[in-house]
Specification:
This protein has 128 residues and is an alpha+beta fold. Helix content is 18%, strand content 27%. It has a domain at 21-102. It has one helix at 105-127; strands spanning 21-25, 28-32, 44-48, 53-57, 69-72, 77-81, 95-99.
């Protein structure tokens, strides 16, 4: 049985690429970054595997990347690591993260606690 994909109404389909990442969360797969021989992509696409509907997400990743690794937590945080940001250069140790869905309140509280602790530690280090 052959299934066809449905295009995003505004952006169509993702451009052909290689060296991208793909993660799956429930019945949705997410494709990020990649390279087509000329362009390094910074876009994030999702495809609903039940309806085969493509959607380009408005997520903002700081730099276009390729040849990287990605993983996703059960709560929907996609973490991207080991990126290449310029053609024919070495991998970097940069880490990017993007929420693929609205995080649970528990996650938001934990992140706020961590951010507050970092700011307090930074202020204490500057004061010393």
């Amino acid at each position: 049985m052959r299934r066809t994909c449905n295009r995003d109404d505004r952006y169509g389909y993702p451009e052909a690429r290689r060296c991208h990442s793909c993660v799956q969360l429930c019945h949705v797969a997410y494709v990020h970054g990649g390279y087509n021989g000329h362009t390094i992509f910074g876009d994030l696409w999702m495809i609903d595997l039940l309806t085969m509907q493509w959607t380009r997400l408005p997520a903002v990743i700081p730099e276009p990347v390729y040849f990287h690794s990605a993983g996703v937590t059960i709560t929907g945080l996609m973490v991207i690591h080991g990126v290449v940001v310029q053609i024919d250069t070495q991998r970097s140790s940069k880490v990017f993260a993007v929420w693929l869905k609205v995080p649970p309140l528990k996650e938001l509280c934990w992140q706020t606690l961590i951010d507050t602790a970092r700011r307090v530690t930074s202020v204490e280090a500057v004061s010393s």
